[in-house]
Amino acid sequence: MLKQVLAGIGAGALLFGLTACGGGDDGDGGGGSDEGxxxxxxxxxxxxxxxxxxxxxxxAAAEAAGHELKFVDAQQEQEKQISAVRDFITQQVDAIVLxxxxxxxxxxxxQEAEDAxxxxxxxxxxxxxxxxxxxxxxxxxDFAEEGRKAGAWAAETFADDADGTRILxxxxxxxxxxxxxxxxxxxxxxxxxxxxxxxxxxxxGNFTAEEGKAVMETFxxxxxxxxxxxxxAHNDEMGLGAIQAIEEAGKVPxxxxxxxxxxxxxxxxxxxxxxxxxxxxxxxPAFGDQLMDVVxxxxxxxxxxxxxxxxxxxxxxxxxxxxxxxxxx
Length: 329
What we know:
single chain; alpha/beta; Rossmann fold; 2 domains; 6-stranded parallel sheet; 6-stranded mixed sheet; about 40% helix; about 20% strand; elongated; carbohydrate binding; Simple sugar transport system substrate-binding protein; Peripla_BP_I
């Protein structure tokens, strides 16, 4: 079973590109041309190196394509994103790009965009299934697949642990698509592989280093680290914060406790090279060019897939040093 899971992961990482499904709209918002588009982008925030790199990628790609990008940093607040989308509707932009901070609560504003004839493209994160008819497409990572990659490594690494595997989990922002799906994918594989495990504790670190460190300190105070086998952090920032807390507690991260992180930043890979963590699942932020292609296709009325994945990999300790120079954020 594990070989099948790993094979599926390898195949999934190769999925890339744009094919066909639900199309654009001929309403008042779309300009019908990919020249000089006005695009509204409601970004989650700047909570991590990943997010900063993602914003830079989209901004650079829009400029290179000759489009005007109206960029709003919502500071991880849904209300600010909703307000930004409504402002974009009022301004009659050609398309709206939304990176939703959480999955729920978008129905009204997405309906407003549809009523105005302005196509909405989701970037990075998704929304609940009930709202799928209110946006054209989503471009981003397969978060559940990222969780499966992490789970496959954990299942193989701890397969012979006769005493069972005791796990701590640092979740991302509560209610967000990456937090929900990275968790589900991870434990889906552990269960499928029949790993004997216990979730000792699982709390949100909100995708930030500061909160990741604070939650890890709480874990250490509540449970100590004796007998804890694995920390699964939903992103680099929380994992790096947790490493600080582990070191301050007198333990050796990557040795006394195995650590998995998701993102693949320079800082994350450097921590891996330094022996402080054990497995990195990549989440690629540099999809600005691909996003501009999707926006242009949507505005032109071309058919696009409902979901277009970006290309991503996963790396163990034997690969950290060679991969570090390739990191762009």
